[in-house]
Amino acid sequence: MIETTPAEERPERPVSHSETWQSCLVMQGHINGYGRLFGGVLMSWIDQVAGIVARRHAGCEATTAAVDSLVFHAPALLNDIVVLRGRVTHVGQTSMEVRVDSFREEADGTRHLINRAYLVMVAIDSSGKSRSVPGLRLETEQERMEWETAARRDRLRRERRAEGY
Questions:
Q1: Residue 121: strand, helix, or coil
Q2: Which pTM was predicted?
């Protein structure tokens, strides 16, 4: 059984409450046979950031339920700094969509997008059952637009699940 909270009693948190930045240095053990950051390593870093974002927003543990979009735009190479930015884009009753953008950072601080990922995280209680999450307070036009596109992705996820995809 899912522990839920009526919407009128559910607190809201702004996107900024749980936004998370993480920096990683690409080292020898992180690169693949082509001399680029191994995709699995980046995926692990993305999942860690998404988990921190979800935990901060929910105020409890969270687990990854789905990764439905993971797009590689450009490589990162040995000794590159990879900067990841995660934030909640949409919430349901017990789940949160988290967007994680990954950038390669140059020595002058210029950043180039290398990956964008959307993950669905579910809040869980101490017995591992899903539980309610706070609502999301949208404070900017960009956050509202992100909410709308996230709602479309959520509908598509539900359709794919119904089709057994």
A1: strand
A2: 0.90
